[in-house]
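Example 286.
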Amino acid sequence: MTMSTTDASRVLRTDYQKSVAAYWNNEQDPVNLRLGDVDGLYHHHYGLGEYDPSVLAGPDDRIIAELHRLESAQADVLLDHLGAVSRDDRLLDGGSGRGGTSFMANQRFGCQVDGVTISEQQVEFASGQAERRGVADRVRFHFRNMLDTGFESDSYRGIWTNETTMYVDLFALFSEFSRLLEYGGRYVCITGCYNDLTGGRSKAVSQIDERYTCSVHPRSEYFTAMAANNLVPINVVDLTAQTIPYWELRANSSVATGVESSFLTAYREGSFHYLLIAADRVNGRR
Ligand code: GPP
Ligand code: MG
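Predicted structure in complex with magnesium ion:
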């Protein structure tokens, strides 16, 4: 790790990036910490799949555990789309949060994982988890900017972003990922994006932006930015219907934060999609 890539003024280049880092450095929400406490995997993404309705009648802990199960199921779906990964491969987690998806990837594939985040608190938290889990030599977290990681070109078999792309310019991001991926390497993105067909950013989507200091992109931009950077989609999955039950359960839980109604409205009215895109890195036209 060199000073040139880890020095705060280099990692946080804009006032916007500083404000995003400040948000995540201060984040301590029970909706994330209590869920993570269930088994030590701390996620910063949402859930997929049906919930067991019997949890609604039980003690609060059962709802917490069920929300956590759905979030881990989401990370499993993401990892299912990475294709073949061997122990000798390296993976990159772009916007790694408290490390949940990175640890699951290492558990599944045995490979090395690098997580990058612009939050120094998240680096510290996730690195502590890596020590605790005994995988600090295989899963490393770095205070770096995913738009300019400073890592070696052509060195990653796979890269993913689990709900982090709404913080960055997609053309800049995919240019960096295309540089980092080896030929044939796979990029997997799970994201919320707005629907180009419904006439721009809806009120509910604006509320989501406001809540997280982010800027949700239109669906189209993912594909134009990938095409411009030698990333060719192999799978596109609309996960919207599968994430709605998570939001319904979360709205009825003690850890609801108030953003649930914005997600439910945006998904139900069709102004917003929960999308998975998997893409392969090819060579440019010669
Ligand atoms: C945060 O997860 C997720 C985002 C900031 C990205 C926004 C996602 C979209 C699909 C638009 P979190 O687990 O930190 O959020 P919360 O605290 O609400 O659980
Ligand atoms: Mg959360």
